[in-house]
């Protein structure tokens, strides 16, 4: 007999359902009896005891369905130790729910912040497993997160579509890609979509270099240029400032422009006089069905989690390293960010293709 709790927390992405299906099918097919408690809307469900008992049937037919059947919410890690507005101790409340239901394990699907809370619950003595989801691919200890390649597909399609209109009108186009503080999604979609310029937070840009790259294209007879810009892109000027000053400058930009792309667009327009358009695919990047790669990754990660539960091994994130599914101690990965190395093979390959990073 196994009793497990499941929750999905943080921003949604494709393949959350596929991963939960992997866990539940992996257990249902291999243990005598299984009780599954699905906590609603992320950690909220665990804190306030909002759950549904689910059966293996609930996980049938959801391999291809995006979003999460459990709902999700953001519960910032830094507020977990802060009582709620009625004075409730959230960590104690989560422990009480866990013990009341006599769970063998809590399986937590989420990104970096979610992982930190999972690690906190581990430190508090609960059996937890963390399964790494995010379109940002910024989780340390795993080469890939589920959701990432599905989002790469969508952002790439956006760049593909922009290509035809940009070339017809001889315009400069900025496609703004999600990714929070890292540039994985922009880098992959930028390469896959054949962008001419890629701007990511890990390689701060110099606007003069960006303009030079555009002018070089014009001089070579290309009337249009496509920039893939990460939502977290930052200029060299700002990156060189002390952290506090950086924050202040970014806040000023956020007040004046809908996002960094509009500031870059204005700067380019002022220097080149060219016609520029900004396209923001936004949350479409997190929507729709998981791509086949993510369906396979999720099934592998979910089924490994099921095996760990059968073996009573807890306190891990289940990730993928060099193509092999691995369990990584939460104590080793929680709280760390995986960013793009400016010297990575991907960046080098892009530079060899003539893609400018504005550096
Ligand atoms: O972490 C996933 C992500 O989509 C980021 O790429 C983005 O910065 C953020 O979530 C958007 O968050 P929200 O859905 O809360 O607007």
TrEMBL record:
PANTHER family: ATP-DEPENDENT 6-PHOSPHOFRUCTOKINASE 3, PHOSPHOFRUCTOKINASE. It is an enzyme of class 2 (transferase). Catalyzes the phosphorylation of D-fructose 6-phosphate to fructose 1,6-bisphosphate by ATP, the first committing step of glycolysis. This is ATP-dependent 6-phosphofructokinase. It catalyses: beta-D-fructose 6-phosphate + ATP = beta-D-fructose 1,6-bisphosphate + ADP + H(+). Pathway: Carbohydrate degradation; glycolysis; D-glyceraldehyde 3-phosphate and glycerone phosphate from D-glucose: step 3/4. It is found in: Cytoplasm. Keywords: ATP-binding, Cytoplasm, Glycolysis, Kinase, Magnesium, Metal-binding, Nucleotide-binding, Transferase. One of its GO terms (molecular function) is AMP binding. InterPro entries: ATP_PFK, ATP_PFK_prok-type, Phosphofructokinase_CS, Phosphofructokinase_dom, Phosphofructokinase_III, PKF_sf. HAMAP family: Phosphofructokinase_III (MF_01976). The gene is pfkA. Its EC number is 2.7.1.11. It comes from the Bacteria. It comes from Wansuia hejianensis. ATP binds at residues 11, 74-75, 111-114. The active site is at residue 136. The record marks 113 as: Important for substrate specificity. Gene3D superfamilies: 3.40.50.450, Phosphofructokinase domain. Belongs to the phosphofructokinase type A (PFKA) family. Mixed-substrate PFK group III subfamily. Homodimer or homotetramer. GO terms for biological process: canonical glycolysis; fructose 1,6-bisphosphate metabolic process; fructose 6-phosphate metabolic process. GO terms for cellular component: 6-phosphofructokinase complex. Residues 3-309 form the Phosphofructokinase domain.
